[in-house]
Amino acid sequence: MSDKKMLTPAEVAEYTLNAGIKKATTPTKKVLVSAFLAGMYIALGALGSIAASYNLLANPATYGLGKMVAGLMFPAGLVLILIAGGDLFTSNILITLAALKKKVSWGQAGKNWALVWIGNLIGAAFAAALVANSGVFDWSNGLYGGVVIKNAVGKTNIGFVAAVASGVVCNLLVCATVWASYAAKNVSGKVIMGWLGIFVFVCIGVEHVVANMGYLLAGLIVKLNPMYLDAAHKTLADVANLNLGNILLHNFLPVTIGNILGGMIIAGSYYFLFMSKNEK
Q1: pLDDT in tens, 23-53
Q2: Which of 171, 205, 239, 262 is 20 to 30 A from residue 256's alpha carbon, by CA?
Q3: CA 164 to mean position of chain CA atoms
């Protein structure tokens, strides 16, 4: 057994169950700090993915290639969480497993999700503010900043149902990725598994609420910069609806709902059913 290179699916289920119990019973202050770090890592990975691909994303002829390049960079945030530690809202929906097994209460699970969401927001806002004020958005005559603004505007114009559906797909992939990474018994295995599913979700273009905290808040901070607006081919009127109210109601809310459903119904419940087959 000690020579095994990975955990079996049944062992992963047990590991996920125990991880959920631990997460749901961690003291509030530790949860907030851990969530702050995770939010910061995800936002930096998200903005880094635009940095790596903005020239490609700005051109419709190379947009698909740009998504692929962005997908290569974006998973760095999740890999940091898997290796260095951190509480991420989307993957913490796997606490559903412990709640369904009655190892923790739904109240404990809900409290953890709320605290982690808030901590992720603070961490992502911190990272977005630092990057937005670092001057890097000036690259290529403001094209980097222009793509950040264009991306943010687009994310506040997604229909409610579409945003929920997109959030479901996203967290199916995130939770499956995290679940699979638990099977790995070494760092290289966790890096590979932490990269694969996230690469797919970035290429598809589905919505991750914590990544969006970084994208949207960065866009909000720089939306009045004339050089970035010119690079994005946007006017002040085009970015007028990029405000906190619309960000919360038209993106964070539906995407959060979708992410919860994706993690809870598709990932948590599905794997719970798989694990319970062996129960007597």
Answers
A1: 999 999 999 999 999 999 999 999 999 999 9
A2: 239
A3: 14
Q: Give the range among 4-13, 61-70, 86-95, 105-114 with minimum mean pLDDT.
A: 4-13
CB atoms < 10 A from the CB of 161, how many? 10
Quick one: tokens of 276? 């319970």
Task: Please identify which residue in the block is written with the tokens 């890097």.
Answer: 136
Condensed to tens digits (0 to 9), the pLDDT of residues 137-189 reads 999 999 999 999 999 999 999 999 999 999 999 999 999 999 999 999 899 99
**What are the residues whose beta carbons fall under 8 Å from the beta carbon of 107, sequence distance 6 or more?**
none
Distance CA 202, CA 173 (A): 10
What's the token pair of residue 69?
Answer: 């390049």
Task: Fill in the DSSP letter of residue 268.
Answer: I
- Length of the chain in terms of residues written: 280
For residues 238 and 228, what is the distance between their CA atoms, to the nearest angstrom? 13
Residue 91: how many other CB atoms lie within 10 Å: 27
| Distance separating alpha carbons of residues 154 and 140, to the nearest angstrom | 21
Question: Hey, what are 220's tokens?
Answer: 């909000």
